[in-house]
Amino acid sequence: MQATVLWITIVLVVIIAAIFYYVIRSSTGSATPESVQRSAGMIRQLLFWGALVVGVVVLYVTLRPWPHSLPGGEPIVVNVTGAQWSWEVQPETVPVGQPIVFATTSTDVNHGIGIYDQNMRLVAQSQSMPGWTNRVEYTFTEPGTYKILCLEYCGLQHHEMIAEITATSGTAALE
Amino acid sequence: MATQAKAALASDLCPRVAMAVTGLVFVLLMVFGLLMRASQAGIMPLDPALFYQLMTAHGIGMVGASGFAGAAIMWYFMRQYVPVTNAIFWAITVIFLIGVVLILAAIFLMGAAPAWTFLYPLLAQSGGVWDANAALVYLIGLLLVGVAFLVFYLDVGWATIKAYGGLGRAMGWPQLFGAGGDAPPPAVVAGTVVTVVNTIALVPGAAIILISIVNVLIPSFGIDALIAKNMIYFFGHTFINAAIYMTIIAVYEIVPRYTGRPWKSTRIFLGAWFATLFMVMAVYPHHLFQDIVMPPWMLIMGQVLSYLSGFPILLVTTIGLLSNLYGSKVKWDLPLALLTLGVFGWAAGVVPAVLDGIISVNTVLHNTQFVPGHFHFYLLLGLVAMAFGFMLWLTRSRQSSSLSGFANLLLWLYVVGGLGVVGTFLYAGSASVPRRWAEHLPQWQGVDLIGALFSILVVLGALYFLIRYVVGFGGQPTSTEAAE
């Protein structure tokens, strides 16, 4: 996901840069304002309708299913409570292949849980707020040790708020 | 001529001083940014307490300076059309600077480091790092800055009503909805939209500051953390976007003087600003996508409006600039190059911003360095470039604005440095590096180092622009006309 987003960014930024370069190169030449306005109007219309269609498609694709939806039934719940500057994670071991709901809150200020896989790639996150419990679902697909990093600035030792959670395919899960 | 020049300088003195102050702040805070990147890279490690103080000063300083630069630009051009008050601009400059001094004192003398967003209740609950006095001084400083801006907008708003008979008329609503006659010039349309949205945004902004002050004094008095977050982001998002909108007025006003092609308030232009008026205030929930307890309809609204907010920028201002330049036989100089760069930075920065404004994407990019990647795109390469462009246009002479040789080199240093700073942030974000971390893991530090090196180029370029401005401080923008 992240790499795709980066590549889309690079491609679109290069296209915008190329358009600016072309116009800057053409700025010292001569063209009547009327002809330029006519062309600009057509380009604007094309972009408007094109972007609108793309927008509707992107909206549909990215919002169905609802990104924050939770699994039905009685999923395994991991309670993650933040406090300056540590996490309390309960339980610390979960099974692979089953939806896990992280229920997260805070006892003091705003924190944020970022769940990182074994390659330190962010796979899910949620804010941890005092007075509220956010619930985010994630299914571990590989056994191993995952990290929970604080992703909301919370003061001096914000960068030291790191906890671990183990995903296992054995019987040790939830014990 | 000399007398005319002196009179012009006297009437411009306040915005000129304001821009000098903001230019200096920009460069200083860029150095802070460089220090933070160097620290994250591990080549010059800072104590985390100092890192977070620099981070707070960098954030609040850049937002404040951007707003102030935008206000000076807006004031400079709107005074051609509406009777704004010179004395009030001087007064708000003084109030603003007192607020800045208090904020800096709270950060560097008293240790406050709540980040510019000061998410409630961090100021009152610092974990023992700073005390209640530091929090109070910080908040009072913020309040003064807020008061300065509120007085500014009230003065501009009152002057606009006097000149146009109403804010709706000043935004060209009669012409937008079919009435005849000429619409107000683009500077007035954009300036009035900003006046309305920022006046509204300052109310919850001031309210959360006051609530935080009471909370520091009486800890048992609190507010719901989610409501507080909504208030802060409603204010913060609107304010920083309005800062860009104010700065873009320089493009609307200055570029036509180079090309000889007027920038007209067409119905499309008026419609874009009409839409912006509402969208800029309603889009802020895109900062709260990971606050999952938020009502889903608000999050969906945030995603939809994030996407639509790009339309006016790309379809009206960017195409407007490009069609103004195309085939205009324009003679390029440094101010025009910086203004054009600014619109590019704004337009290009929309791309990663819109992508991060998709909820499912945001889940794996929010609060990573992808976020400073996109906002540095439209601030560093957008707003700041336009502000320097305005400054150098304001004080230009044929010599001082030349784009040959050394000036060209420094401009390119700024462009390449800026793209490098932005690119390394975006790359690091896609590699899941969290933002606002004083200490980085070894595997992240290679990109940090590259980012730090690019930051040096940015500082050199910005320092050059500032020096050129200071050297030409008494110059006049009178020879800008296309006929030259």
Radius of gyration of chain A: 24 Å
Number of helices of chain B: 15
The level of helicity of chain A is 25-40%
The beta-strand count of chain A equals 9
Number of helices of chain A: 2
Strand content range of chain B: under 5%
Oligomer classification: heterodimer
Order of H and E elements of chain A: HHEEEEEEEEE
Shape verdict of chain B = globular
Helix percent of chain B reads over 70%
Low-confidence stretches of chain B: 479-484
Cα-atom Rg of chain B, whole angstroms? 22 Å
Would you kindly provide a written description of the structure presented here, covering whatever features stand out?
The complex is a heterodimer of chains A (175) and B (484). By secondary structure, chain A is α+β, with helices and mostly antiparallel strands. Chain A has helices at 2-26, 33-63; strands spanning 76-83, 86-90, 93-95, 99-106, 111-116, 122-128, 134-139, 144-150, 162-168. The model of chain A has no long low-confidence stretch (mean pLDDT 94). Chain B is an all-alpha fold and 484 residues long. Chain B is built from 15 helices and no strands. At the A-B interface, helix 1, helix 2, strand 5, strand 6 and strand 7 of A face helix 2, helix 8, helix 10, helix 11 and helix 12 of B.
Secondary structure: elements and pairs:
The complex is a heterodimer of chains A (175) and B (484).
Chain A: H1 2-26, H2 33-63, E1 76-83, E2 86-90, E3 93-95, E4 99-106, E5 111-116, E6 122-128, E7 134-139, E8 144-150, E9 162-168
Parallel strand pairs in A: 1-4, 3-9
Antiparallel strand pairs in A: 1-2, 4-7, 5-6, 5-8, 8-9
Chain B: H1 2-41, H2 48-78, H3 86-109, H4 132-164, H5 167-170, H6 173-176, H7 186-217, H8 225-259, H9 267-282, H10 296-325, H11 334-356, H12 359-365, H13 370-394, H14 406-430, H15 445-471
